[in-house]
Amino acid sequence: MNVGIKIGMETAREATVRGRLAVAFSLVCMIPIITGVVDVTIVSKYQFFNESDDTWLYCYYTGSLINQYGYQFGVEVDTGSGTRFTPQIINGVVTGDNSVRIRDSVGDFRVGAFSCQVRGRSQTEKVITFKMKSQADVWPVAFTVTASLGDPVTLQMIHKFNRTGTLEWRRDGVGGTVLTGQNSTSLTIASARSSDEGIYECYYQGDTERKQGIMKLIVRA
Predict the structure, then answer these.
(1) Which superfamily does 15-133 belong to?
(2) Global confidence as pTM
(3) Per the CB 3.0–4.6 Å rule, which of 154, 157, 212, 216 could disulfide with 185?
């Protein structure tokens, strides 16, 4: 790709566009399954939603993906609503991208870790993004944290609303691992292992309103 260099003062419009792109890229977690010449991006609109909102997932691909077998939206882990994708959606398809509109009537299904997978004959790419309630008790400082094997790493949430109770962390959803003794907004791992990789949730014990914070830890070799 040829990139031109423009010398001079950045316009307000250019600054706005640049800011929006920075936000968009910060919301994406890309996980290649098989390396290939396809590039897949998932965008969550909106990352934080109100109770009465419909919400969207957009999946885009670029590159020479020959014999493309289609898109598959999915739920990565059970964060409280199972792993089956709701049928209460509206699909949209144009060349190079696919979208799904998730209706507000599905309620708490809108909370979770969602993926888009694009399959070819010899390669597959999958990307992950997250959705949370705008009224969630805690929000992640970053949706994705990457660490190397053996490195210390801290997963950090922040309080958004005043609430009393005991916080709890779990890894990889319902049926996953509840991390006993981790009762604050930060979770520190002294030496990251491959088994620490996964999707983490932080929530108040006994919460039935799906107001958890969600994030992902990637551990590189």
Answers:
(1) Immunoglobulins (2.60.40.10)
(2) 0.79
(3) 157
